[in-house]
Amino acid sequence: MCDCLGIIVQYADNGRKPLVNRDSGAKLPDPEVKIEVLNKPFICRRKSKYGDILLVHYEGFLENGTMFHSSRLHGDKNPVWFTLGIREVIRGWDRGLQNMCAGERRKLTIPPSLAYGKEGKGKIPPESTLIFDIEIKEIRNGPRSHESFQEMDLNDDWRLSKQEVKEYLRKEFERHGYPPNDTHHEAMAEDIFKKEDKNQDGFISAREFTYKHDEL
Fold it and tell me: Tell me: the pLDDT tens digits for 105-162?
């Protein structure tokens, strides 16, 4: 995944087991992400949904106010891209960044079970509640959207090769002035194929593509 997101963009499931009531043995509901809207534009042409590619700036804090990462201050200081809803980011982001407008800012308070859990990560101690200030700069159709399939299917054979998916990602990034990033595109394509190539034949059929998108 994109190095510019540091500890955030990565698979973040942590293998955490469901919370269970010790007395009854019943499964407890997952803690929720607390969402506070800090700024919302007057005009909102579309809202983010699972499968969209988002461009965001963010700052991450521990509960005591210690900043552990900022896209504006660390790395290349550019906003970062990721695909919403496919576990490229911690689950708290996937839940808390839905239905946002471009230009909207939110404060997310994310419990440990939807972040890094018992293990922690880098500067983040185990069982840490995390607080993020996140601004969406841009929302684009991701490779999982229905309307993207025909654009991706370059030879009109009703199935997608890995090369076709990577070519689509490259064009989308270049369209917005970002240089090609073969490593990032390869990682994103690998993730898509792991989840959508159900019969593992090396292609994503129109049926596999559409069915998976409806599940997201």
Answer: 999 999 999 999 999 999 999 999 999 999 999 998 876 565 677 788 898 888 899 9
Give the CA radius of gyration of the chain: 18
What single letter denotes the amino acid at residue 99? N
What is the helix (H) or strand (E) element at residue 138, kind and residue range?
Answer: strand 130-140
Beta pairing, strands 53-62 & 34-39: unpaired
Helix or strand holding residue 46 (H, E): none
For the segment 66-94, the average pLDDT, to the nearest whole number, is 89
Residue 49 CB-half CA count within 13 A: 11
Distance of CA 96 to the CA centre of its chain: 11
What is the number of helices (H) and of strands (E) in the chain?
5, 8
Find the largest Cα–Cα distance for the chain: 59
What angle, 0 to 180 degrees and rounded to 10, lies between the N-to-C axes of helices 206-215 and 182-196?
90
DSSP-based three-state secondary structure for 131: strand
Q: Does residue 9 contact residue 56 with C-beta atoms inside 8 Å?
A: no
Cα pseudo-dihedral 96, 63, 59, 48, rounded to 10:
0
